[in-house]
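Handoff note, outgoing to incoming analyst
You'll be picking up this chain. Sequence as last confirmed:
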Amino acid sequence: MGFFPTRPGPGATTKQLGDAGEATALRHLQAQGLQLVERNYRTPGRGGGEIDLIMRAPDGTLVFVEVRKRASTTHGGGAASVSATKQRRIIFAAQHYLLRLRTLPPCRFDVVVLDGDTVQWLQAAFDAS
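Most recent structure output, in case you need it:
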């Protein structure tokens, strides 16, 4: 899946570009057998975290997905932009989300990188430790 059929036109806002990137990542993950649980989960209040996509893998693993879109790889690409601070915010949001569940499923943190027209799915890109 190396194309973006829902690519916004010229002059698109950052939000429109981000939404289109998330839609592309979602389609890619669904094609790999994952099911959408929730999109754009945010913790309440300022300074919290957000998770772009929460998916369930066929084996029952809950997958917290960060989507990174970059037009080019000249500055390290999308994977390099998931800093330690960003990881902490995603982990915080995941912990907040998990408080709602009665039993904790296995979990992992993935990153889907959209660099130009390339989709790269990095499974278990980081962990909560």
